[in-house]
Q: What sequence folds into this?
């Protein structure tokens, strides 16, 4: 596998004993384990060769009374061990944000990380690594040895219902952070996935939507995020997606799985299907190595059916050996046999909650702060807190990634008539209202929910400051129809702001939202889904204990009309349903991603000359920063970041390509999060990955010869000093 020219992110010195890159330079653990896996396959008996090739979901979802083996754990997946060969069982759980709660099915709880978009807003790979290490340790303690984490799909559409599970609209930021999260998970001697390969850009019709996109556009965007994530994280497994890509299911896609992933990228782990994503046994010949959650498919294709194929067809016989080799390679690479997991391990939930809180604090983005209404003084006399269930907890995203503590959600609002418990609007037990009261002990603090606008307005008018919490619930399987705040919250905010100009809006959203009231409120804080201690993190920012340092990992559109698609394809005729509008059997749906191609997010806004509400990379602080002195020597950039304000804070300095060969071309090429005391400065360096500067030429990459203009950016719009570098034309293969 080719080694990318490594991006050097100058991580905040205070957070790192050693540069994060030292860990990423480690040789590929999968490559090191391959020979041993090959030797084991040689010892396998025919009847053993279809054990590792499929898994069952150890939950009796069809209520058949099925008995699972004693060593299976209630969760997403189970594959028995092969005692004779010393291979352990594979015990799998979701997901990227912690150990899935599954409605309390195991009667245990776990620590909920903030949403992945919140993690991404920290632009801090080392912190994301720590989050992955924490949830991986809880997976191990519960007996799981495979965590279905590493969701890295680009947010092509901000209405995507799983935006909260993904990092960004940019391939570099997404890939670097996914790689860090995966390394964190796997530091516990368990396997992590990276998912969902590929172009799983919407939930509407997710099981049959056929994405059309050119090879170059895919390679320069969604696939590049996976490529960087795999190079930097070495995930033991790749989960392929439900949707089709250019006419073939992603899990039955010779081009995606055999050509791109295994041949071009040299991937040595195994490809597992998503749950219920296998169309037939032929998928084995198109690169799929393991059928997952087999009872969700029409049949178990990768058991006896596959064995029969292997017994009669040499191509299948060779393939089945490779399938087993890949699963064994991943097992051996991460020590699943040498350091097996057992349930009943100890978990320090208090310590783990502090990791979640730190991620939330660093991911909170201050979007507006007129008149420095923030930070609030602890001597405030009266505060009206309104809406968003702020008296109970903080919002979380729904679906397979849902995490809760042992006592379950503070609030749970079912969303579908059939009373499906799996898709509900749930809140973590971490009350912003309680955390605010704890900080402003002498203030008169009232709380009103959003039921009666007149009552909320009255309380706001009686208080020095009003803090209104607004929520946008998102769920796997369900896209949002538009970017407005649901439940009439826009009207509520406008009414409260009219009653009190010192109104602060705290958003708990899965992704971007429109803000028709923006010029009427004093401050806006984007807290995303802030996880197990989100209330405390929000209050610490509101009262200035934490200087907000988050930067948007996704553009906030001013209107849906700015997007490549006026609506999510299919959303005008496909009915939402349990886990997502995917039950319209035989339905046909096409999504044309060639409209934007690789110009996803801020690149699209730049190409169309559109101005978003808030640009990618945007975020305010309680202090001010300045980046200067940009120098480039080849692909090595260096510059100085200075804290020009009166209090310590973290800056995320961003380096962009803004012009190539005389043509405007906006691409994030590097970033550096730096912690600085007031007045302090720090020199940082970034090594640019040349693929970000290049075009896919059909067989590899080409950097056209010419002048490349780079700029230091506070965000994707606010550019500072530029430097131009001339490069000769250069082409290379992955
Ligand atoms: C779901 C999701 C996937 C998850 C899997 C197991 O449908 O798409 O992200 O890991 O099934 O729950």
A:
């Amino acid at each position: 596998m080719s080694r990318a020219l490594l991006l050097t992110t100058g991580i905040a010195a205070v957070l790192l004993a050693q540069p994060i890159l030292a860990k990423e330079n480690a040789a590929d653990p999968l490559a090191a384990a391959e020979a041993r896996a090959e030797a084991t396959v040689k010892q396998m008996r025919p009847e053993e060769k279809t054990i590792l090739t499929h898994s069952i979901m150890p939950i009796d979802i069809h209520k058949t009374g099925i008995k699972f083996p004693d060593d299976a754990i209630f969760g997403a997946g189970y594959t028995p061990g092969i005692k004779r060969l010393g291979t352990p069982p594979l015990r799998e759980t979701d997901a990227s944000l912690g150990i899935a709660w599954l409605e309390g099915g195991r009667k245990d709880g776990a620590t909920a990380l903030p949403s992945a978009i919140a993690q991404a807003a920290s632009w801090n790979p080392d912190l994301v690594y720590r989050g992955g290490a924490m949830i991986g340790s809880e997976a191990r303690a519960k007996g799981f040895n495979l965590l279905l984490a590493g969701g890295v799909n680009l947010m092509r559409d901000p209405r995507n219902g799983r935006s909260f599970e993904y990092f960004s609209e940019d391939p570099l930021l997404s890939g670097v952070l996914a790689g860090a999260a995966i390394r964190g998970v796997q530091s516990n001697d368990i396997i992590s996935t990276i998912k969902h390969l590929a172009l799983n850009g919407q939930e509407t019709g997710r099981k049959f939507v056929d994405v059309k996109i050119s090879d170059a556009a895919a390679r320069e965007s969604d696939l590049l995020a996976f490529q960087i994530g795999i190079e930097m994280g070495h995930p033991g497994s790749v989960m392929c997606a439900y949707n089709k890509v250019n006419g073939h299911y992603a899990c039955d896609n010779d081009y995606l799985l055999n050509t791109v992933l295994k041949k071009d990228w040299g991937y040595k782990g195994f490809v597992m299907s998503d749950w219920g994503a296998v169309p037939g046994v032929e998928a084995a010949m198109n690169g799929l190595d393991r059928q997952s959650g087999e009872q969700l498919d029409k049949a178990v294709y990768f058991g006896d059916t596959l064995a029969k194929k292997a017994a009669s067809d040499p191509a299948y016989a060779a393939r089945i050996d490779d399938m087993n080799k890949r699963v064994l390679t991943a097992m051996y690479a991460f020590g699943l046999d040498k350091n097996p997991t057992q349930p009943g391990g100890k978990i320090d939930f208090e310590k783990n909650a502090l990791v979640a809180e730190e991620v939330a604090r660093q991911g909170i983005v201050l979007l507006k702060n007129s008149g420095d209404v923030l930070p609030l003084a602890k001597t405030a006399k009266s505060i009206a807190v309104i809406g968003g269930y702020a008296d109970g907890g903080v919002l979380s995203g729904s679906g397979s990634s849902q995490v809760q503590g042992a006592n379950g959600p503070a609030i749970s609002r079912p969303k579908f008539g059939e009373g499906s418990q799996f898709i509900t609007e749930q809140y973590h037990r971490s009350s912003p209202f309680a955390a605010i009261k704890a900080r402003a002990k002498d203030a008169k603090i009232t709380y009103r929910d959003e039921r009666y606008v007149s009552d909320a307005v009255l309380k706001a008018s009686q208080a020095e400051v009003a803090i209104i919490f607004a929520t946008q619930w998102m769920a796997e399987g369900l896209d949002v129809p538009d970017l407005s705040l649901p439940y009439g919250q826009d009207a509520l905010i406008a009414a409260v702001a009219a009653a009190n100009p010192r109104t602060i809006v705290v958003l708990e959203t899965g992704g971007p939202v429109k803000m028709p009231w923006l010029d009427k409120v004093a401050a806006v804080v984007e807290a995303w889904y802030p996880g197990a201690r989100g209330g405390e993190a929000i209050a610490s920012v509101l009262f200035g204990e934490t200087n907000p340092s988050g930067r948007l990992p996704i553009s906030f559109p001013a209107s849906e009309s700015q997007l490549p698609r006026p609506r999510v394809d299919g959303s005008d005729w496909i009915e939402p349903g349990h886990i997502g509008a995917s039950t319209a059997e035989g339905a046909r749906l096409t999504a044309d991603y060639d409209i934007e191609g690789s110009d996803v997010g801020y690149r699209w806004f730049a190409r169309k000359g559109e101005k978003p509400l808030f640009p990618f990379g945007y975020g305010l602080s309680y202090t001010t920063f300045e980046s200067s002195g940009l120098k480039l020597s080849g692909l090595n950039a260096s510059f100085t970041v200075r804290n020009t304000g009166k209090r310590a804070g973290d800056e995320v300095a961003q380096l962009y390509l803004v012009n190539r060969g005389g043509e405007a071309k906006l691409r994030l090429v590097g970033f550096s999060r730096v912690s600085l005391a007031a007045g302090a400065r720090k020199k940082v360096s970034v090594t640019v990955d040349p693929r970000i500067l290049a075009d896919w030429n059909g067989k590899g990459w080409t950097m056209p010869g010419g002048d490349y203009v780079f700029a230091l950016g506070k965000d994707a719009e606010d550019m500072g000093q530029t430097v131009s570098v001339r490069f000769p034309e250069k082409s290379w293969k992955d």
